[in-house]
Automatic annotation (TrEMBL):
Keywords, in A-Z order: Membrane, Transmembrane, Transmembrane helix
Name of the protein described by the UniProt record: Uncharacterized protein
Source species: Paraburkholderia agricolaris
Membrane-crossing residue ranges in chain numbering: 12-38, 50-68, 75-93, 99-120
Domain of life (superkingdom): Bacteria
Membrane found in the keyword field: yes
Keyword Transmembrane helix: yes
Length: 134
């Protein structure tokens, strides 16, 4: 059986999103391994510390959802990258940050913004097709 193009494109986009989030997970894991889960990120505000540490768990959860629960994964992916860029933009206004990581987040956000409709259409089509097969 041939997979429709919309589903195939959705899968490839979700795979790219997942790979980017795996890279983010790796970054958060390195921080946790070096400094521990309760590191204060050099004196960052408590909510910033909680948010950044939580991404160690939220990013891989998003990866799993992108592959297993397509629409939930897309919603969480968009929420994660939007909140990450908004938060880090606010943080960068008050503190120095690593520009390479910040710019990579912005590029990923733009990629998600410009491709999520295609990913959503394929995910919705797939879920509808699976329901009709049952």
């Amino acid at each position: 059986m041939r997979i429709p193009d919309t589903e195939r494109r959705s899968f490839y986009l979700r795979l790219i999103y997942a790979l980017c989030l795996c890279g983010a997970t790796w970054t958060h894991l390195q921080v946790a391994l070096v400094h521990g889960l309760w590191w204060d990120y050099g004196g960052a505000a408590p909510l910033t510390r909680i948010y950044w540490t939580s991404l160690l768990f939220i990013d891989p959860l998003t990866v799993l959802l992108l592959l297993l629960s397509l629409r939930a994964g897309l919603i969480l992916c968009a929420a994660v990258i939007v909140t990450d860029v908004v938060h880090n933009s606010w943080f960068a206004f008050h503190h120095p940050i690593r520009l390479d990581l910040y710019l990579s987040q912005i590029v990923f956000l733009l990629f998600v913004i410009f491709t999520i409709r295609t990913a959503w259409r394929g995910a919705v089509r797939r879920s509808v097709a699976l329901r009709t097969v049952d």
